[in-house]
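Researcher: First entry.
Model:
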Amino acid sequence: MELAGILNKLTRFSNNIDIGRKGLATNGEEHRGRIYYERGIAGSLKLFQQAQSTSNPQIIILSELVFLQQELQFCHENDTKTKNSLTQAIQSFEDSLRCLKIVENKKAYQFAEATHLTDSKYRIQGFPKDAVHLACVSHRIRLQNVLRAPGINMIEKAVLEQRVANLATVQAAYTEKQRKALT
């Protein structure tokens, strides 16, 4: 599936999730809410799986970015902790997209690599732990914290687990791009 199709559908499905959650919390709208919610969750899971199957870091990151932007849009205005966390995640993934462009230019990435510390705690498999890796690591922690919360239903947990798996795919594919740029 092409990138625009994935992103458009993710936007629609995350909107369905929001409509569904609001319906579930509204007396008399529970049935309609359940339908929207389940349609949104199932569709999102399928699209995150399709994004992962591409093994393309840009597609996976953009998918996550669109989903995060939608979550932020639907976040309650008084929920400052969640809004701050989502804003930070969005910024991290926007920064990681810049790294994806640089790693494609072998000479530019070789210069960029020279600016990173060589200590192993600043490296992943010997390559710089740059914005792509940092975004994936911090977001994985964020998603795993949500997975630990009680009351999350199993289908929503499946979406969260898929998103965690997608981050590992991004890092593996990106590390390969780093390897090619630096050899």
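Researcher: Second entry.
Model:
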Amino acid sequence: MIFLLTASIKNTSRRVCWVSLQPDGSVSIGLSDRAFVSPDFRAKHFVWSAFNRVTLHYAVPSEENSLKSIRNPHLTFHPPNWFHLTANDGKRLFEAITDLKIMLDQSNSIPWIRFVSKQITKLPPAGIPLKPQLTTILSIPLNDDKCSVGIGIDFMRTASGDEIPNTLFDQFIPWQDYFLRIHAVELAPQVATLSWFHQK
């Protein structure tokens, strides 16, 4: 099952990102924007504590000076405990383990991905999905075509959570025994930024 997130305004739709729920229970998030990372960026976290967790926040801005471009970067969680960020050449830039089940037993909401698009008019048109029979389009209604859109994706134990201020889109998608919460806000136009949280 694939969920394609598009931003819609003035009878046009722009592709923002996609969410893929895979048969083995994995979930992948892919971005329509490119991202830029330092050529020597690599991170691995293979130690995890259920009791003394530390939250790390990784951010990748799309500023081209001295950075390497990766097209359509995607983050994946493979149950029960493996996360990774993959570049367009298949190279893994981030790998880590986390026991998501224990975390969701302790908290209803675990933040995962935060993504800010570049200006909506600079994103590719939505077009027809590659696998329309497997794709559900989720449309984010915008008020300004010169804005950027901020996307958040969280792991949730239940299909409920605190209200998010100024949200244009907020949806819970069933996933395994839990839910993914996808939410979006309208932002001032800016460079695209991919960021994610990891607890270790």
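Model: Note on the second entry: The chain has one helix and 16 strands.
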